[in-house]
Write a structure and sequence with these properties.
single chain, mainly alpha, two-stranded antiparallel sheet, disordered C terminus, transmembrane, ND/Mrp_TM, NADH_UbQ_OxRdtase, NADH_Q_OxRdtase_chainM/4, NADH-quinone oxidoreductase subunit M
Length: 534
């Protein structure tokens, strides 16, 4: 197989499986769905990882690039590629979808439709992480919207219609902000930069050119960059989500079926952080530099607010949903750690944000699976009605306790690494935000330990259907054990993720720093000329 064609196969194999599932008998739909997801996961690991490390990066650090003309009149191309920023998220996506597919095994309502939408959603997510052309990125970004809407709206809980519509409206509003920003940059650049702006492999050149105010002979001013940055940031803050754009998330999680919640928390939220790194910062570096402190502040607010909201919940699933708001705040904190005078801390912030996305992808998937196991048995999620599960379900309780400790950031587990690195990195840029984030770790420990005491320990279970609190099945144990093993492995030895991300992060930080410094030099020169003229 041509290594460059590997990325196209990874992206569109699930879509092909979706078509096949839609046409197959209902009795075999889940077999086709699970087989397709498993094959895609193997491609993202057994095939992609060796090919990535064997390939030589191009001038922009991308590997395994596939490039072909798509809409020639607008220079829109079909371009895919992978680097150290996208690779961990692609592998995470393959894993989370595989575990979610295994969790979906007992879905009996409209199985063909369910599996078709499930697989189409995977194509949208993988394509978003691998697309290098901005138009292609936007198309695949939108592909994620409808499958998730129907997966919540058809297979969700009692208020599924409300939650699905709220999710749809919020995400659509964010997509429109992104579209306006891209069109603005296209118009501001004219035919020269406009045509090139739709090729993400040229982002480093665009950033440097924008920093000097000129690219392909066309000036992109600071005001245009600033407005474009805030539009793109607004889109990705909704997706992340950050306070105050987070209100769709708890409703969507509470009403979504367990496998969909696992995907939503484990993968889809990461598109927000990825978009900021891949689009908002490189396309509008001057606007990003001006707004970095606000990004840090939004991260700190999300951390504290999400933790306090989680502490007030009595619904197990809503608690985990609000904890995601808090944990994704550390991603924003790391992304806001712009310190031109301390580039090592700046790089540490970006690398920590990527690791936090990976770590949260594991812990949030595990926590939502833990909630789903209980809900399938007793059909409620009230924390105050649980208790004594360590005696009734010892294997479940042991794995659930381990995942809870990973989520609260216990050293030696994956949740600790990303939080610690982003807090350290943010200190030179915004000491107060770093201090608030450190306090957020204490709040997280508070609400997680309270949940542990009431669900796994404490008094006897007093809710309904006590007889249904049976041991985990082999399938459930395997899903939970894989997530727990990864939480331990990345907590003890996080180096592989950092080794992959740091070269790409270093290249991005150098590019952004050069753009800002070039703009400062240009403005200083204009000031001197203006003074001489006077």
């Amino acid at each position: 197989m041509d290594p460059a064609a590997l990325l196209s196969l990874i992206v569109f194999l699930p879509a092909a499986g979706a078509v096949l599932t839609a046409c197959a008998p209902a009795a075999v739909a889940r077999w086709i769905g699970l087989g397709t997801v498993a094959a895609t996961f193997l491609l993202t690991t057994a095939a992609l990882l060796p090919a990535y490390f064997e390939a030589t990066p191009d001038d922009h650090g991308m590997r395994l690039v596939t490039d072909a003309e798509w809409v020639g009149s607008f220079n829109i191309r079909y371009t895919l590629g992978v680097d150290g920023i996208s690779l961990p998220l692609v592998v995470l996506t393959g894993l989370v979808f595989l575990l979610s597919a295994a969790t979906s095994w007992n879905v009996s309502e409209k199985p063909r439709a369910y599996w078709s939408l499930f697989l189409l959603l995977e194509t949208g997510v993988l394509g978003t992480f691998l697309a290098l052309d901005l138009f292609l990125f936007y198309v695949l970004f939108e592909v994620m919207l409808l499958p998730m809407y129907f997966l919540i709206g058809v297979w969700g809980g009692p208020n599924r219609a409300y939650a699905a519509i709220k999710f749809f409206l919020y995400t659509l509003a964010g997509s429109l902000l992104l579209l306006v920003a891209l069109l603005m940059l296209y118009a501001a650049g004219g035919s020269g930069v406009g045509a090139s702006t739709f090729d993400m492999r040229l982002l480093s050149d665009i950033a440097r050119g924008a920093g000097t105010g000129e690219y392909a002979g066309v000036t992109i001013d600071r005001g245009t960059q600033t407005l474009a940055f805030w539009l793109m940031l607004g889109c990705f803050l909704i997706k992340l989500p950050a306070v105050p754009f987070h209100t769709w998330l708890p409703d969507a999680h509470v009403e979504a079926p367990t496998p969909v919640s696992m995907i939503l928390a484990g993968v889809l939220l990461k598109v927000g952080g990825y978009g900021i790194l891949r689009l908002a910062y490189p396309l509008a570096p001057l606007g990003a530099a001006a707004g970095a402190e606000i990004v840090c502040a939004l991260g700190a607010v999300s951390i504290i607010y999400g933790a306090l909201a989680a502490m007030a919940q009595t619904d197990f699933k809503r608690l985990v949903a609000y904890s995601s708001v808090s944990h994704m705040g550390y991603v924003l904190l790391g992304l806001g750690a712009w310190t031109l005078s301390e580039p090592d801390f700046w790089k540490m912030g970006f690398s920590g944000a990527i690791f936090q996305m990976v770590g949260h992808g594991i812990t949030s998937t595990g926590m939502f699976f833990a909630v789903g196991v209980l809900y399938d048995r007793v059909h409620h999620r009230e924390i105050n009605r649980f208790g004594g599960l360590l005696r009734r379900m010892p294997i479940y309780a042991a794995l659930g306790l381990g995942m809870s400790f990973a989520a609260l950031g216990l050293p030696g587990l994956c949740g600790f690494v990303g939080e610690a690195v982003t807090v350290f990195a943010a200190w030179p840029a915004s000491p107060w935000a770093a201090a608030a984030a450190a306090f957020g770790i204490i709040l997280t420990a508070g609400y997680m330990l309270r949940m542990v005491q009431r669900v796994f320990l404490g008094a006897e279970y007093v809710g309904p259907l006590r007889e249904n609190l049976s041991q985990l099945s082999g399938r459930e144990t395997a899903i939970f054990a894989v997530l727990m093993a990864l939480a331990v492995a990345l907590g003890v030895y996080p180096r592989p993720v950092f080794d992959v991300t740091e070269p790409a992060v270093g290249r991005l930080v150098d590019t952004l720093g050069d753009a800002v410094e070039a703009d400062r030099e240009r403005n200083d020169g204009e000031t001197v000329i203006a003074g001489a003229a006077e």
